[in-house]
């Protein structure tokens, strides 16, 4: 190791440290050309460092133009000091090539000794080595200035270097490499941020284009900036031709949406009607204003009405009964199942008739689950709630106005499914006319609107009254009666289906086994006693009695002792053995006895009592208070 290097204070400590490391590995007098990466290996390195090479090459060529054709060379190296690219004076490049400094060579300290080409990357700072600062004598005639380049994560990406003869070096050479390295690093950061932004933008566009909802965006001038395929399809527009066009020239905006835009007001799931290509388009929209320095822009989400209806009706309820769950061993039950399956085949309306409690609701659910719309909503409505003319809007819905969102009608809620109308005889005339329009034309007109809305819905109605008498009394539409009368299923009362009673009892017990975690057995004399009863409450009363017996059973065995008291005193005629009535028995006494009987049958459940007696709950509560009847005393 030469004394002038080890003892001279003009060299910084890192040069001395490098000399000590090199002395243990090599001799200063010998020179071997650096090892080179060739072929596939070098191409792989260049591919990995493509961004650095492209940016640095342009920066080096720009710097070379302002160097007055100096006899120097500019180099680009990767983080392992592999020479990737070079430019400069031909004579200098040729002389460096004679030393082995050509594309692919490794300029690490362990190969070429102390040199700025390796030390800059090793130390992470600009380094200049000239003359005898090099360990290898072959480099004494040269001056190397190198500065590392870092990426946007602070990791070493490579380095840039300026090389010239020692006698031609300038004081500004090292600062020049520093300026070039900063320019390259900034460009790498810019490219990285741009690539990241483009990646996020592509992800955003991919997300928007894959959404089920339509997405429409426009700027403060009303010019369309983005339109995904779903929005274009819903609004009958062409995406490429629509972008950059004023929104007002593409579609006619509804008044409610225009007001939201004018007031910069957010709208959430409001129903509106667009006009596009001379067609009216019903959509549910969400408007989101975006406030920034350039003005207010907007994003509009377009929700297809069918999806919104499915979302709303999915929370209302589903039909649980199916024909497979219904008993079919007796002739009467098989008849009901057969006609129910026939009723489910077409889109024609169906009328279910029979006394209270015979199972019209269960049959309607089974019909729904057999139709082509089985996957759609099942909307069950008790028409008694619409007997008041003021409730008409609740059934027909309301059209949207400039100030208010519209309300969906009941046929719209049931679109793609089944609308079950129980106690249809209570519908007022206006709703009867609207229902007839749905059946005949598949259209519904909301209250306060003139526009007809198409609906695809299966109508199933039920009644315990004689609709023909209602027609004669001008209380029910004759045309609507004829529409329902085309397919009518009558469910006989349970007293006329005595052959079904035992099967219904066993079927109900089978349904109770899982929730009660019990295997049930019923004695034959119990079945005989149940079959002898007239069942004024029909299937509903039977199911209630069986459930109560199951809860009171002894380890799942149902005996005569489990029967309610009133079922244990059945006369030979099959009627309860009521005490003989005196000729002076008053009507209030008869009425009180009927309420007491219903309370015993239903175990004091007031809602079931009202159904069994076919009176309203309010009336029942009033009667019970009048006769001092406490329903709680009948409960277990």
TrEMBL record:
<feature type="domain" description="PAS">
    <location>
        <begin position="200"/>
        <end position="251"/>
    </location>
</feature>
<dbReference type="InterPro" id="IPR029016">
    <property type="entry name" value="GAF-like_dom_sf"/>
</dbReference>
<dbReference type="GO" id="GO:0006355">
    <property type="term" value="P:regulation of DNA-templated transcription"/>
</dbReference>
<protein>
    <submittedName>
        <fullName>Transcriptional activator for dhaKLM operon</fullName>
    </submittedName>
</protein>
<dbReference type="InterPro" id="IPR002078">
    <property type="entry name" value="Sigma_54_int"/>
</dbReference>
<keyword id="KW-0010">Activator</keyword>
<keyword id="KW-0804">Transcription</keyword>
<feature type="domain" description="Sigma-54 factor interaction">
    <location>
        <begin position="326"/>
        <end position="551"/>
    </location>
</feature>
<keyword id="KW-0067">ATP-binding</keyword>
<dbReference type="InterPro" id="IPR035965">
    <property type="entry name" value="PAS-like_dom_sf"/>
</dbReference>
<dbReference type="InterPro" id="IPR002197">
    <property type="entry name" value="HTH_Fis"/>
</dbReference>
<keyword id="KW-0805">Transcription regulation</keyword>
<keyword id="KW-0238">DNA-binding</keyword>
<dbReference type="InterPro" id="IPR000014">
    <property type="entry name" value="PAS"/>
</dbReference>
<dbReference type="InterPro" id="IPR025662">
    <property type="entry name" value="Sigma_54_int_dom_ATP-bd_1"/>
</dbReference>
<dbReference type="Pfam" id="PF00989">
    <property type="entry name" value="PAS"/>
</dbReference>
<dbReference type="InterPro" id="IPR003593">
    <property type="entry name" value="AAA+_ATPase"/>
</dbReference>
<dbReference type="InterPro" id="IPR013767">
    <property type="entry name" value="PAS_fold"/>
</dbReference>
<dbReference type="Pfam" id="PF02954">
    <property type="entry name" value="HTH_8"/>
</dbReference>
<dbReference type="Pfam" id="PF25601">
    <property type="entry name" value="AAA_lid_14"/>
</dbReference>
<dbReference type="InterPro" id="IPR027417">
    <property type="entry name" value="P-loop_NTPase"/>
</dbReference>
<dbReference type="GO" id="GO:0005524">
    <property type="term" value="F:ATP binding"/>
</dbReference>
<dbReference type="Pfam" id="PF00158">
    <property type="entry name" value="Sigma54_activat"/>
</dbReference>
<dbReference type="InterPro" id="IPR058031">
    <property type="entry name" value="AAA_lid_NorR"/>
</dbReference>
<dbReference type="GO" id="GO:0043565">
    <property type="term" value="F:sequence-specific DNA binding"/>
</dbReference>
<dbReference type="InterPro" id="IPR009057">
    <property type="entry name" value="Homeodomain-like_sf"/>
</dbReference>
<keyword id="KW-0547">Nucleotide-binding</keyword>
